Amino acid sequence: MKWQRPALLWTAVLAAGLGLWAGNRLAPAPAAQTPAPVAVSPPALPMLRPGDPLPALVLPNGEGHALDIRERFKGRPLLVNVWASWCGPCVEEMPELARFAEGQGTRGVQVLGMALDTPDGVRDFLQRVPVNYPIVLDTPGPRDASVQLGNAQGLLPYSVLFDAQGRMVKAKLGPFAHGEIEGWAK
Where does the Thioredoxin domain start and stop, copy by copy (predicted)? Predict the structure, then answer.
């Protein structure tokens, strides 16, 4: 019996060694590892500051027609109000913006609504709460028109005032209170 124990031990060691050798020798070669794709963020947009020109923005209106904002609103001051139908404060200030736009006539400040919303959402909203100024649409995102107008926080409502030469005068984050727009837009 004594001689069987070492023979059994050597047999086990030999079998393990052969198993390791065969496993390494006969196993398929590992596939070449390709590095995982790295997400590349688009470069940050420069922050719009007072004195900067209105960015080149061409956005669809409610009917889907492209509107070149620089071209359409040149020659007069422009108040751009960024809003969405699901934004409570935006909805609350809409009548105030409509009242302001109505009182500007043909020489005053122009008002443009810029909805970060779906076409259906905007259409449904404007049927309930019509406004007398143009509305364009954009899809919310990290490079949407609101961000290009300086809304780095992405909060709504957001308004920007441009002078008659198309240069930014100032911006406001949050809704206008009743009667505030006239003083702010001077």
Answer: 48-186
Q: Band of the pLDDT at 47, cuts 50, 70, 90?
A: confident
Residue 95, preceding peptide bond in cis (omega within 30° of 0): no
Tens-digit pLDDT profile for residues 95-139: 999 999 999 999 999 999 999 999 999 999 999 999 999 999 999
**Is 134 within 8 Å of 98 (Cβ atoms)?**
no
Neighbours of 78 (CB within 10 A): 23
Q: In what order do the strands lie in the sheet containing 135-138?
A: 135-138, 110-116, 78-83, 158-162, 168-173
Q: How far apart are CA 24 and CA 1, in angstroms?
A: 35
Write down all domains in the chain, each with its CATH number in brackets: 58-184 (3.40.30.10)
